[in-house]
Amino acid sequence: MTAALPSPSAVSLSATSTMIGRSIRLTRRNVDTMIMSVVLPLLMMAMFVYVFGGAIHTGTAYVTYVVPGTILLCARYGAASTAMAVADDMNGGMIDRLRSMPVRASAVLTGHVVASVARNAVATTVVVLAALAMGFRPSASPVDWLLAAGLVLLYVLALSWLAAGLGTLARSVESASALSFVMLFLPYLSSAFVPTETMPAVLRTIGEHQPVTPVIEAVRGLLTGTPIGSASWLGPVWAVGLLAVSFAFATACYRRRTSR
To answer: Is there a contact between 93 and 4 (Cβ–Cβ < 8 Å)?
Structure first.
């Protein structure tokens, strides 16, 4: 009697699990990337709190104001390393070995995205603990913490898929790093470090009408009890919309690149 062949969904699930395990092992071996994804946001937070914090007036302790922005900055540093990891696979021969196998585009990229989420979870935990040591005193309830964590997770997933798409476009690890620069720069034009109303008119318009500011304001409101306003729905809508667009962009870029 001939053994039944595994279903396509079972093959896809197995391939996805294998790719996730591979990417997590690569993350564990790449200690430098893990350290930098934690150290850089910590350095930025320390610089703004201890160097610039005394000159910036936000109506509350500056460390309380800046922590939500730093948490989202972690996500962008982690996403930048995802773009470089995908570019390394795309240009290092790994993808060529998979072309003859029934592996979906989402399986390869999902491995890198899950590893990115794991790195960001570690980095975010370290940043929050450091912020508590610096004087951060959130007023969030357990439900507020869960809602904030869920919104950050959506944002991390969206950025990670966007970074994966950029990595498929890059012709080298160096060019992937350059492409991801925009993701690193955008938070500085948001309410992450200063209130947008203190910015010049043009920059204020940019800061108030981009996806980062509503997400930061929603997380800030949940953790510190400040008024959230329209960010309560704009933040999740931006995060979900960006996730959907980034996923479609990444998988389309991967299929186009591998079909050549």
So the answer is: no
